[in-house]
């Protein structure tokens, strides 16, 4: 079928999710989301200066018992996919291994976004159950990694992360991704010069894809870069694409595409409700939120997964608390999906795909 990993519009037309998509297109809420983003913990073993969740870190976690219950609730509800992610490091929670096993055995597709330091302790479950594991590396050398992704003692753990990725690559059933966030500081310090070297390392490790992203500010607006830096990144990516083959691809994120197109800081929206919010949600220790862009935003909090069951929160949530016209002026990766849901409602959608490929809408 050939759906791209970031073809979020095309993914709407997969047979397994179509009944929920059709319900969301009408502005209604299906019995369960297609995708749940799940933050088991806010704790992290790294201290990245540019972390977009920095203000939310180290403020609590779900108890192992509650995380296990949530995994059971997600399976029972009929959620299609879960992304273990976080303000914190999801693999740092001692209950994550059990959650991975419960979700995987329950037929839920699992994605994991991690800093890679703790892959080794979770290798059995990740190798067996993960549809994909994406590691945020943002460097190709020990020194650059230490400047942008130091641990809490200020050290570089680059070699450990790369070693963990190699171990996973040797055993994985799903995909392994190498994520590179282009960062530039006011003093001129940057990691952009290592894009090509990182892509080469990703292929050597055995990664399935290499993804380059642009940086966000604290409110999720894309941070612009100097023309010379963008030109350097583009030149390196052109060379990196020569590495592509059946088992390795280079992926441009929507944020990088926006930079390339000269898009401004804002992304105007003319719809008052987010229909994608009927297909996805975010669970964190501090609450259930309408989406990851609004992690920690009290206005976007839909409930408390510590005290209430997920089915009740999902059923009773008021998703109209967020108005994309005023609350989502940043570049949203699912803006085009919202526009497509409107087209589906108007009877102008596409034909369904023949089979399912990637349920991570």
From TrEMBL:
Pfam families: Radical_SAM. This is Molybdenum cofactor biosynthesis protein A. One of its GO terms (molecular function) is metal ion binding. Residues 30-246 form the Radical SAM core domain. Keywords: Iron, Iron-sulfur, Metal-binding, S-adenosyl-L-methionine. It comes from Actinomadura rubteroloni. The keyword Iron applies. The lineage of its organism: Bacteria, Bacillati, Actinomycetota, Actinomycetes, Streptosporangiales. It comes from the Bacteria.
């Amino acid at each position: 079928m050939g759906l791209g990993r970031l073809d979020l519009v095309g993914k709407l037309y997969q047979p397994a999710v179509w009944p929920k998509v059709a319900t969301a297109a009408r502005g209604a809420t299906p019995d369960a989301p297609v995708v749940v983003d799940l933050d088991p913990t806010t704790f992290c073993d790294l201290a990245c200066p540019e972390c977009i969740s920095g203000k939310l870190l180290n403020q609590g976690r779900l108890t192992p018992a509650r995380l296990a219950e949530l995994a059971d609730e997600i399976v029972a509800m009929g959620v299609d996919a879960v992304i273990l992610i976080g303000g914190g490091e999801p693999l740092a929670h001692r209950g994550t291994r059990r959650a991975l096993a419960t979700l995987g055995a329950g037929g839920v597709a699992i994605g994991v976004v991690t800093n890679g330091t703790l892959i080794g302790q979770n290798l059995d479950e990740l190798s067996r159950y993960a549809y994909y594991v994406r590691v945020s590396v943002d460097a190709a050398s020990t020194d650059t990694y230490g400047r942008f992704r130091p641990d809490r003692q200020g050290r570089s753990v680059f070699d450990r992360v790369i070693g963990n990725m190699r171990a996973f690559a040797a055993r994985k059933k799903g995909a392994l991704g190498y994520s590179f966030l282009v960062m530039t500081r006011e003093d001129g310090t940057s990691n952009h010069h290592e894009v090509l070297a990182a892509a080469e390392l990703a292929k050597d490790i055995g990664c399935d894809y290499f993804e380059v992203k642009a940086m966000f500010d604290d409110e999720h607006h894309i941070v612009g870069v100097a023309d010379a830096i963008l030109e350097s990144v583009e030149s390196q990516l052109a060379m990196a694409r020569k590495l592509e083959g059946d088992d390795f691809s280079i992926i441009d994120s929507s944020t990088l595409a926006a930079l390339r197109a000269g898009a401004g800081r804002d992304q105007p929206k003319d719809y008052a409700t987010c229909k994608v919010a009927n297909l996805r949600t975010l669970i964190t220790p501090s609450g259930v939120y309408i989406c990851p862009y609004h992690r920690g935003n009290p206005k976007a909090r839909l409930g408390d997964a510590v005290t209430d069951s997920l089915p009740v929160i999902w059923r009773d949530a008021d998703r109209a608390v967020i108005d994309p016209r005023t609350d989502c002026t940043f570049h949203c990766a699912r803006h085009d999906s919202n526009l497509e849901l409107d087209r589906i409602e108007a009877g102008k959608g596409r034909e369904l795909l023949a089979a399912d490929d990637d349920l991570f809408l």
